[in-house]
Amino acid sequence: MKNFTLLALLLIMSLGYGQVTNEGRPASWRIKGIEKPQAIIMPSFNLDSIQAEDRVRDLDQNKPWRFGYEFLTDNNLQNSGVWHTMPNGDRVWRIRYVSHGAKTLNFLFSDFYMPKGAKVYLYNNDRSDLLGAYDEKQNNESRVLGTWLVSGDDIWIEYFEPAAVAGQGKLEIFKVVHGYRTVTLINPDSNINNSQDCHFDAECFLEGINNIKDISKKSTGLIIVNNSNFCSGTLINNVNNDGTPYFLTANHCYSDPTEWAFLFNWVSPNPVCGGEQQSANNAPNYYLTASGAQLKARKEEPDFMLVEMTSDIPVDWDVVWSGWDRSEVPPPFTYGLHHPSGDIMKLSYDADPPIAEDIEDNGMGYIWVQESIEVGALEPGSSGSGMFDNTGRLIGQAWFIAGNVCNGINTGGLLVGYGRLGVSWDMGETPDTRLKDWLDPDNTGVMTTGWYPSQEFHTLDAKAIFYEHGYNPCGNQVAPVLRLINNGTQNLTSAQISYSFNGADPVIIDWTGNIAENESALIDLPQNATVAGENTLEITVLNPNNGTDEDTSNNSIYESFVTPGSIETSNVVFTITTDIYGEEVSWSLKDTNGNVLYSVAPNSYGDSTTYSQTFMLEEGCYTFTIKDVYGDGICCSQGEGSYSLTTTSGEVIVQGGNYGAQETTTFKMADNLGIADMKEENLTIYPNPSSGLFTIASSQNIDGTAYTIYNMLGQTVKSGSFASGTNTVDLTEVPQGIYLLQASGNGREQTYKLIKE
After folding, report:
1. Is residue 448 included in any domain, yes or no?
2. Which residues span the domain enclosing 371?
3. Among 247, 512, 562, 602, which one is least packed by beta carbons within 10 Å?
4. Tens digits of per-residue pLDDT, 678-693?
5. Secretion system C-terminal sorting domain: from which residue to which, for each copy (predicted)?
6. Does residue 495 contact residue 543 with C-beta atoms inside 8 Å?
7. What is the tally of structural domains in the chain?
């Protein structure tokens, strides 16, 4: 039997109960001169020791990915904070926590009760991150509530209480969590793309069942369990079709469900389908979070767990309860939707029927096995995610993986096991170990159910996604390719495409063709010249078959990208000051063909040390990438490290330090080194190219002018000074290639290209 990896990736996130919609503003923000509480300063802790432990733990995917250090506290409305009473009798209570160097803070309330009209907000000191309101909708029987993450190390908690309910609210702060390293979901655009490169975003086209897949993604959720673990799962319908918020996931994700948090509809609007590009975020839909659940049933084999969410799900969230099939008949193919490593929703697809196996001697029994996956992959964090059949019905939940997840942008040799819903149905001897008592409470014996609410496919439903964005940072043109998808039941034979670049009046393109249901066509759109700075693309599909599109939510796509301007210099200076873990830093500079010109590997730098290096560059486009092995950058929790790329005149190309796992910058160099231009400079160089002997001449006095010759790795190969008249530079002993001659004198610095053949 192969070695299997349980898919639960234990990554930190915070808790929450009910729906948190980030509505309104704290009352104190409108009160001038309000009293300020003295900040509670959390004590220091041995972060070096914790990070040393993490370096070992992170190598084992079966152990938690730890993000934070927990402080126990005992602060409440009576013994801490400051009250302020308004003229109408309403009251505001505030408390402030500071934990120096934290990337985030989150909190656990051990006694939470909000009377009608009362609210709790959390925000950082500069008010750039606001969470709340938590109100009466989050009340629950356990009276325990955990918060989502708030960015920063200086966080306020504010409680508003109307005069009519004075003294009725309860708020006991039991735990403060100091987030010492980056987490996937701190903010919608921070560390999105945490999973590997072979994944397909949920919006990627899936031929033959695309409209079915687009419904299934509305039932898929990301959950935070045990305060620090990521799993996936699926809203699941029951025979009564009554919207009971049942949620199916894996038993190995188990912790007290009253402390769980759920997130739905986190989907990239501009999908990346197996590539190194970065998925875009769909905020504010990212904030569709709910929390708290009650355990209904679970069983170790076949690794299922069913919970009922504490709160009803708002209608405007547009979620769908998945139907299911417990017949145990293998479908012709299967697909899955999940959140690998807590990333934005991804798609996987296996074109072959799954194999039903009963393996009772190794703890991995009663499974559907996918022996190969053609599209995407699963990773830790995908645990509990649904396996859907060709009709979109749920037939199992993800249990384990074996083999390589990805081979670059291609799926690796991955075998996946799912617990079988048909076995989970009635294998257990009691209601708390089987599904049937909850999903078929009247024991009707039906084998399948459909979606709730009932879903009907539209007759006319044209959908637009990007097939190719059509730009790269090194070019000066954009030529996007649109994938036009027919999600409707009627063949799509015509449509109008509205195309606008950089806010210009839209160009209308009349398209004709013939696209069957769940098929697509690729359409080349007009080419446009980009401008330095931000560029935008906006595309909308109109009037399918000269009729009215019945679902306009998927008709428009938007993209913005930045084209770097050219830098008028031939030298770029890289400067870095490391933090106290200098060995974690690595970086590379690549040309437009992906060739590495300069680089530093991990374990090369010392701690808290400054380094500087000058890059000698030709005209062209370059990509600089800096990485941190531990994923916390070089600022600011472990020293005030920083880095910069500048021109020799001091113009900043990029600077930073708080970049998490990595940061990439693309820039262009103007042509300062062209051979044809050298005749206009102070020096004349001939022959060039040369077999090794270069003649240097000038009409001006260059006596004493210093020169240095570098190879393309920035290494010095020769240096000296010129005399008046004609000089000879001998490169016969160096390999063939391109060299840069840098001459300095009379307050000027010039760089010339030498080509040795």
Report:
1. no
2. 200-439
3. 512
4. 333 467 889 989 999 9
5. 685-755
6. yes
7. 5
